[in-house]
Amino acid sequence: MEDVPLVKRQTTLTKTIKFAYGCGEFSLFIIRIVEGFFLLEFLLDVAEISPVEAGNILLLSQLWDGITDPIIGKLSDSTRTRWGRRRPWIFFSSIPLALSYWLLWQVPTFITQNHLVYYYLGVLLLLNFVDTGVNVPYGSLTPELAPEYDERTLLTTIRFFCGMMGGIFGGFIHAILIDLYKRPEHSAHENEIAARRGFTLSASVLCPIIGILPLITAIFVRETRTNPIKRESVRNAIKSYFLGFRATFSNKAYILLLLIFLFSSTLINFIQSNLALWVKYVVKMDVDFPYFLLTVQGSAAVSMLLIERMSKRFGKKKTYWIGMFILFCNMIGIFFATETVPKTVVYLFCVLGGVGVATGLIIPWSMLPDVIDLDRLTTSKRREGELYSIFSLLQKVALALALALSGYALEGAGYLEPEERLQDDPLYQPEAVIWTLKTMVAGIPAAMVLMGCFVVYFYPIDQKRHAEILDLLRAKEDEDNANLEQEE
Fold first, then answer.
1. Residue 148 gets which letter from DSSP?
2. In 3-state terms, the chain is what percent helix, strand and coil (to 5)?
3. 117-150: per-residue pLDDT in tens?
């Protein structure tokens, strides 16, 4: 394999790069949103797996990610091809990602009910593995494409704005298609078969989009770097990764950012994982859920543009506090809502929730490239893949915690499966289940908001500090280049 040719670092993001880079997140967000909002409901009410079994599946699949995410991050750092370090991973993982997504939403009739647990566990292990092959190298492109402080916030905003567009598209299409074959006059068994057909139809529509868009990113985004990086064997790459853990976790700014991101991701995923069930059983407006979801995603997409401007004016820390304060107030209202709440109030909850979701996404991810620059200054190594892989891992851990703990909590509260519910009230659930859903949609996220805001106070990198880091990096690179010229 050839080394990546040394090229001058870009300081301007062209429209082609912005579009191609955004395509990757559009695809990934379809998976995030559909999985986050609908997977638990699918496993419980369509595949009819018990809440505990569903929790075990989701927890084990994320433990697998704990192994694959960091290793693929390190391997992508060490990859050397004429096409760069990241793009081959994105290119060759895209089609398997789409196929494994399609398999996730099937209820195979040739597998007995008792063995469905193993089917979904196997599919999720495959899906998470190839998702890592796209997601970690993709995220690692940010500091290479956007070297400046505000430019990174802009690129991160573009990334997640495109992601939200993917979430709006995928979430709304999925919500409409899964109910396409259901009819009020049908029996519960007939609607169960109809739901399975709906999930298959949705997966078939979204699968090609999920597979094609990351290919656009891989083909049209060009990687850039400022200095040659030494080759490493796979064995040495993995060994150096584990040795690099010490340096990684001695970086105070990175540790604080990990905590901020963990709290933000956990609150978002608890909301996502249980919102469909909350709408269905607490306020009993399940027919309107596609439009509630569209409102949340639309609000988040618009808020991202506002957050990018606020971040330039007030800084990332203050912007985070403002967005989280809005979300905290919203969580209080959601916690005390009942089935008598007006539909317009639920729409208001969705709008304000979108502001909080956008803040929790944009700010931590826009902080990460700044911390990576500090890491490069202190270690003299380029470890974007490693550091992004830990972020990706935490994102999946937060999703696993939300889904698994939700499953366990619902089982403990006495969640009724479809055949156990009252014939005259198919949306009936015991009072304990109702309060459990309120806690998971609003109570736990509110606690995460408070903890995240507390940790943000201690985060040390602002715009002035980042400018100092960049100056030191440039001086160090000039010195390294001068030494290389002398050696030649």
1. S
2. 80, 0, 20
3. 999 999 999 998 999 899 888 888 877 787 776 6
For residue range 299-347, what is the model confidence (pLDDT) as tens digits?
A: 988 898 899 889 888 889 999 999 999 999 999 999 999 999 999 999 9
- In the chain, the percentage of residues whose pLDDT exceeds 70 is 86
pLDDT value, residue 188: 63
Burial environment of residue 336 by CB neighbours within 10 A (0 to 12, 13 to 18, 19 or more): exposed
Q: What is the pLDDT of residues 419-453, one digit of tens each?
A: 666 656 777 788 999 999 999 999 999 999 999 99
Angle made by CA atoms 56, 60, 61, in degrees to the nearest 5: 115
Cα separation values, 25 from 22, 163, 338, 371, 402, Å: 5, 5, 35, 22, 22
Supply the DSSP symbol for 487.
H
CA nearest neighbour of 224 among 451, 8, 445: 8
The CB density around residue 212, as the number of other CB atoms within 10 Å, is: 14
DSSP string, 361-407: HHHHHHHHHHHHHHHHHHH-S--HHHHHHHHHHHHHHHHHHHHHHHH
Read off φ and ψ for residue 422, nearest 5 degrees.
-65, 140
Distances (CA, A) of 157 to 15, 148, 160, 302, 379: 14, 14, 5, 11, 28
Q: Is 40 left (phi over 0), alpha (psi -120 to 50) or beta?
A: alpha
User: Can you spell out the DSSP letters for 192-241?
Assistant: HHHHHHHHHHHHHHHHHHHHHHHHHHHHHPPP--SS------HHHHHHHH
Closest CA relative to residue 261, chosen from 397, 68, 160, 143: 397
Residue with tokens 């997966």: 203
Measure the CA–CA gap between 106 and 125, rounded to whole angstroms.
15
- Number of H helices and E strands in the chain, helices first, is 17, 0
Q: Is residue 199 over pLDDT 50?
A: yes
Tracing tokens 């597979």 back to the chain, one arrives at 211
**SS3 (DSSP) at 122:** helix
**Paired tokens of 18:** 């912005």
Contact between 466 and 450 under an 8 Å Cβ cutoff? The reply is no
Under 8 Å CB-to-CB from 223, ≥6 apart: which residues? 4, 84, 85, 86, 87, 141, 144
Q: List the beta strands (DSSP E) in 291-350.
A: none
Do residues 224 and 384 touch, judged by C-beta distance below 8 A? no
* Structural contact between residues 114 and 190, judged by C-beta atoms closer than 8 angstroms: no
Interatomic CA distance for residues 161 and 303, integer angstroms: 9
Q: Of 421, 324, 393, whose CA–CA distance to 363 is shortest? A: 324
Whether this prediction's pTM lies above 0.85 is answered by no
Please provide the DSSP assignment of 237-273 as one string: HHHHHHHTHHHHTT-HHHHHHHHHHHHHHHHHHHHHH
